[in-house]
Prior knowledge:
By secondary structure, this protein is of the alpha/beta class. It contains seven helices and ten strands. It has a six-stranded mixed sheet, sandwiched between helices. A hairpin with a 2-residue loop joins strand 1 and strand 2. Helix 3 crosses helix 4 and helix 4 crosses helix 5. The N and C termini lie far apart (45 Å).
Amino acid sequence: MPSQKPIVQLHALSKSYTETDNRRVILDEVTVNFYEGEFAVLLGPSGSGKSTMLNLMSGIDAPDSGQVSVNNTDITALSEHARTIFRRNHIGIIFQSFNLIPTLTVLENVTLPYELQGNSRKQAQTKATEVLGKVGLAGREKSYPDRLSGGQQQRVAIARAIVHQPDLIVADEPTGNLDHHTGETILKLLLDMTRNAGKTLIMATHSMDIIPYADRVFRIEDGKLIEDTERLRVGAEIKAELEKKMHAELAHSMAQLESNGSGL
């Protein structure tokens, strides 16, 4: 369960772009807190501002005005170089297109952020090997990304995002390039790994399938961030129904096993 400790604090955050002399407002004075251990979902179609919001809270981009604080550090007050260093140490990012380095092996892709923190190569390799085992890729350390399926590449991306134990993980459409079954598997893996570690996960998506797993759901409309309690309620009902169905199927399977065993 999420704690009451805010990990991300956005205050009056605004961002706009100019396109052919027209100013397009993406975010308009957005104020919100995201808490330790929380899984929050940002919903909306392409171009609604989801990726922009993730880029601002991870320090990849800078706002026109307003403030972004991550674990009590005002990253909007930092220089671009300082934001890069902060992101390296405190934020993990998962992209839709995986963004693995093709000339590096699986192990090298995952060790990179840990080494950049100043850890030795041996320490980084030990930690990366441990995390790769947790995401189900033990034995693939020497493989290159182009030898992996899409689902396996996203597992590497998850391992890379969490290996340095960041305070915040942002995920931009992490299942967007995957089929439904693989995407569901990756989502559950990501949730298990972040929740077990008590990390904050903020995910941008247009997929409604993710809602049942979320602690809070937001949508972006006309530059405003709106908490969508109705969709969250429906999602909770769907999740409860799925869990009820799973328990019933499990009970039925156990009954069959007992029945078969008694007949031996």
